[in-house]
Amino acid sequence: MSGSWRGTVDAAALVVTALGLVVGVLLLARTHRLGPALSAFLLLLTGAGLLRLSAAPTLDRVLAAGGVLAVRQLVTAGIRGATPLTGPAARLRGGLRRP
């Protein structure tokens, strides 16, 4: 891939990273909930990492993208695990009793 193309893709990845930070902060300010804000930020950070990876698939970039994906999976699982179950899902787990 030519140098100018790599520079363009790297600049786009930087813009997506900045956009992720802005979206995450705005969501946190609007909803006062860390979960959705962090999810949006990590989703856009994943996109930025994949953009960088498409420009030059080096080992460093593969490891960085994999690290972001691993953190995103752990955070998403933590957010889901912290949410109390309601309705039929809670009854299956024994959380709610029918009247």
- Number of helices in the DSSP assignment: 4
Please outline the major beta sheet: none
Shape designation? flat
For the secondary structure, the number of strands is: 0
Elements, N to C (H/E): HHHH
Mean pLDDT: 82
Radius of gyration: 18 Å
The helix content is over 70%
Number of domains: 1
Distance from first to last alpha carbon? 66 Å
Structural class: mainly alpha
- Uncertain segments are none
Measured by DSSP, the beta-strand proportion falls in under 5%
Protein architecture, described:
Helices cover 82% and strands 0% of the residues. With 99 residues, it is mostly helical. 9% of the residues are buried.
Helix/strand layout:
Layout: H1 3-31, H2 34-55, H3 59-82, H4 88-93
What key attributes describe this structure?
99 residues, mainly alpha, 0% strand
Summarize the structure.
The protein has 99 residues and is mainly alpha-helical. The protein has 4 helices and no strands.
